[in-house]
């Protein structure tokens, strides 16, 4: 399975609009440089556990949500990395590359009431089953729009 990174979004604090970037450095133990979770200023930064460094969502999931009647821009999903051609569910528990960086998929990232409150009614239901993936950085590096996304631990296939 190989796909592409089609967009990068970060924001400096919880609840603020996500800003598009062409590239970003991923740091082990923190996430994407300048993002709210790397600086521990995100809405859920105080929660314990892994999977709080980087979030991903599939462009295809956003398209399905829009087909269902909810108008949602990719930046409104509040996910950091937008992918295309990748089954994010298959990345839970797996290591994968995004450009120079290596991430590990930790768990799914279902849409929540907080997201719906920042957007509009119906977003949570429209993204159900396609809310994305939470991941941690295991090798730092720069990620760029257009980078390939590829699974490293192919033995599990």
Task: Give keywords.
mainly beta; seven-stranded mixed barrel; M1 Pyruvate Kinase, Domain 3; 157 residues; three-stranded antiparallel beta sheet; single chain
Q: Any overview of this molecule?
A:
- This protein has helices at about 60-65, 115-120, 125; strands spanning about 1-10, 20, 25, 30, 55-60, 80-85, 95-100, 100-110, 135-140, 140-145, 150.
- By secondary structure, it is mostly beta strands.
- The chain has one domain (about 1-150): M1 Pyruvate Kinase, Domain 3 (Beta Barrel), CATH 2.40.33.20.
- A hairpin with a 2-residue loop joins strand 7 (about 95-100) and strand 8 (about 100-110).
- It starts with a strand and ends in a 6-residue tail after the last strand.
- The model has no long low-confidence stretch (mean pLDDT about 85).
Calculate Rg over CA atoms: 14 Å
Gap between N and C termini: 9 Å
Shape: globular
Approximately what portion of the residues adopt beta-strand conformation? 35-45%
Output the helix-strand order.
EEEEEHEEEHHEEE
Per CATH, the architecture is Beta Barrel
Total number of helices? 3
CATH class type: Mainly Beta
Count the domains.
1
Q: Which percent range fits the helix content?
A: 10-25%
Order of strands across the main sheet: 1-6-5-9-8-7-11
Structure classification = mainly beta
Number of strands: 11
Mean pLDDT: 87
Which segments are poorly predicted (pLDDT under 50) over 5 or more consecutive residues?
none
- Name the CATH superfamily assignment: PK beta-barrel domain-like
- Summarize the main sheet: 7 strands, mixed, barrel
């Amino acid at each position: 399975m190989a796909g592409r990174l089609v967009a990068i979004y970060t924001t400096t604090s919880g609840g603020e609009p996500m800003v598009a970037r062409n590239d970003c450095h991923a740091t082990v133990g923190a996430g994407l440089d300048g993002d709210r979770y790397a600086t521990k200023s995100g809405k859920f930064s105080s929660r314990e556990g892994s999977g709080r460094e980087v979030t991903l969502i599939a462009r295809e999931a956003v398209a399905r949500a829009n087909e269902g009647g909810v108008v949602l821009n990719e930046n409104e999903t509040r996910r950091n990395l937008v992918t295309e051609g990748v089954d994010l569910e298959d990345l839970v528990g797996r290591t994968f590359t995004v450009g120079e960086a290596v991430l590990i998929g930790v768990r799914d990232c279902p849409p929540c009431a907080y997201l719906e409150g920042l957007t509009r009614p119906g977003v949570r239901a429209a993204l159900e089953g396609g809310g994305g993936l939470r991941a941690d950085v295991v090798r730092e590096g720069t990620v760029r729009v257009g980078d390939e996304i590829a699974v490293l631990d192919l033995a599990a296939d």
